[in-house]
Design brief:
802 residues; alpha+beta; 8-stranded mixed β-sheet; 7-stranded mixed β-sheet; 14 helices; 44 strands; globular
Amino acid sequence: MRPINLLPQTNSHPLSMIFRLCILFCLLPVFSSIVMNAQDNAPFPPANIVNDEGGVVIIRGEVSYTNPFFTSGVSFPLIILEDQSGFVHRDRGFVFPLESQTLGQITSDFYTSPFNYSLALPIEPQGTYNDVDNDNEADTGVMVFAIAYWHNVWGDPFLDVRDQNGGGWSGAYASTRSSNDPEQRSEIVGGSFLIYAPDDQQGFPSGFGDDGLLFTEDDPIVTVPQGYIIVNMDTIPFTFDRAREQSINLIEPDSAALVDFSNQGFSTAFDSMIAKFRTDYAFTEYKNIDWDALETEFRPRFLQAEQQNDDYAYLTALREFIWRIPDGHVNLSPFDPFLDEFTQSVAQGIGMGIRETDDMRVLVTSLVDDGPASLAGISLRAEIRAINGIPINDFIGQAEPWTQPFSTDHNRRLEQLIYALRFDQNTSDVSITFRNPGQNGFTTREIPTEREFDTLFSNPLNEPELDGLELPVEFHLVDDTTAYAAIYSFLDDDALAIQLWERMIQQMHERDIDNLIIDMRQNGGGDPFLADQMAAYFFQEELIIGSRGTYSEQIDGFFFDPDLTRRFYLPSEDLRYDGNVAVLIGPSCASACERFAYDMTLQDRAAIIGQYPTAGLGGGVEDFLMPLGITVRITVTRSVDFDGNIHIEGLGIPPTIRVPVNEITLFEFEDPVMAYGLAYLQDRPPSLDGGNIAIGDVVQGQFFPGLRQRYTLVIEGGKPLDIFLGDESGDLTTVVRFYDLDGNLLLSNEDSLNRNSGNSLLSGIGSDQTFTVILEVGTFEDQLEGRFTLSISESEFEVPNN
């Protein structure tokens, strides 16, 4: 760049040059005076600047994490400049403006701790200016940022309100450090801010003041220079750093870090563990857990294991301690140390599976071909009266499942039904008292056991089998009006789950799909916020749906932050679905899965369909380490509904339409819960599939209240049919319905009937074209019971022209 002359160009006469030099030297004091006056006019003393290199240009650092859930579900991790206007104004709902979100780069493997990041600063950021100098004058103020880690799930690469979990400011994995005192409501108490001043006339706190809080009236204020500055709040007073390159590591707070007792002795680790359970466990009073009694019972075992240097005695004591806490979230891992004992204790079976009906009968529901039970003459549907001379219900109640502990009695009982028929390797035979179908009395036989695991790992509830390759959300069309979706996990790939979820809803809108089945029966939980926000797609209001509390040492109790209530954050209107919904549940629907199911009961949004309630796991968890590489999981947050009531833990979400457990649902339906779900959406009772039927067929069956029977029938063009449906006495009022393959009702004799109309005879049913129909048979108002005969024969009537 050419120099700017202060005087017009003249010749080079010596006097002219001297005159110009005189002018320059005379002006210098004037400029110096101007600069000094600007400093003198600053409203506050200047900040103490270190490393003054003109301002920050780039920030690098690392993020260390020990929390085992840190990477769960994460596919798009982000490092951003986080606008701190929410903290400045204590606005827990502040959403970082999109334009303020300068994105950094993750420069090493995110899934290996620590990972590195780099963040290049824009020439001028686009955050929110905040006047924080407390001089009662309107000033431009400064932009205040934290460097923070986030996880992007919804939409574009930037964070929306759902990605931000409702807004506010970071309390973890940021350049700032927040207080753990709940009464301070996540007050920032240390770490580093990045600030940007538009000029050299802006003030910023140089300390927390007497009240220990930042951005309050007693803050000491200094004037900061123009540009970017790192403010280190861990020094007194704060340090203001203008080095071009900064190294800022993000902070994992103690509340998120993995607690580690693994280097302690067995007895000391037990003391640490039970102390943690006493304070942090979320449901001590609710479940009437006596920690003193457990300590008295188990501590001597840990101490003895330590004194005798007996690793397995320690492991066994730890496992049995965990089993005594009636909470399905509480567990230990890995299972490997117990594999040999497990195998030895459950290795023997008799090749038989059982279920318990609603009227407390125990029936044989599965048999291994040529297994001991089958060879002994036990048949499917046999009723079991006793095992080894002990009444069957008592024998089942004595079983100790290796899948414990449980939050609910129904989950324990279902597992006991499996483990009741598992015997240790020293058991050679077992006495079974049973009655096969059609027999009058019970028979007792000694049945040899054999090493078999088919019945241990079977699928007694007839739920869809999984192969481990499922996407987090899968869906397909059942017919032109109904779609089926399965949510298999809220702990897979969160962003992928949302992409699949929104794609499903878009396709249902495009195809005018009015009915949706959501199968949650194989969902073990995951991220509760994700579960809530996936449910939000079915609502038109941003409902408050509950809250959760966590133990606070400061108040010695569980604290429920009123600013952190659970709520729906609605998607755009074009992604909301207002059709009919049926949610299928079962005892394997646990934790976040139950949150989704509960959400769908609000405003009666969906029918909840199942044979049993969900698992009853109503809290958030934390892991900690114990000796010998064991991880223990503890429930540390207490979930409650809008009114503050515990609504999931120990209860589960019950079905609003309960599928009975009886001979029909156990043996006649391939998937009774699915059948009832479809029936609900089609506004009819569920129907049993009788297969194909044709001219000349005569079938017999039995009607049960609330059920129908359906058959697939091909009506050939020009061949009219006579259809008879009735019983021997002629007293059973029967109903015949014809549907097309899309479920549309074509013909029914229902309107012409009353309760005493008797059997049905439809003559001359046909068409001049060949087509396939669903023939559905039932009773008047689906309330009658009895044996029936259905026959299809050629008719003497002529087919009318269509």
